[in-house]
Design a protein that fits this description.
mainly alpha, 66 residues
């Protein structure tokens, strides 16, 4: 499907209505490590980060705080 300004505008409108974004700053080289790790497991970088956050939140809620 060819790129059009109308299509880009519609996509951005959908994203703004349906998704939140988080920007993360990493030390140089960490982004590539994350991309490589995700690719080795057949995941996109975004899917890996979402899974890592979700699994950490679940684990944190299962662990009693000292």
């Amino acid at each position: 499907m060819p790129y059009t300004k109308a299509g880009a505008k519609a996509t951005e409108k959908w994203r703004s209505e349906n998704q939140d974004r988080i920007y993360v700053k990493l030390p140089k080289g960490e982004k590539q490590k994350i991309q490589d790790h995700a690719a080795a497991r057949g995941e996109s970088q975004n899917d890996f980060i979402k899974r890592a956050i979700h699994e950490t939140m679940v684990r944190d809620n299962e662990t009693p705080e000292a």
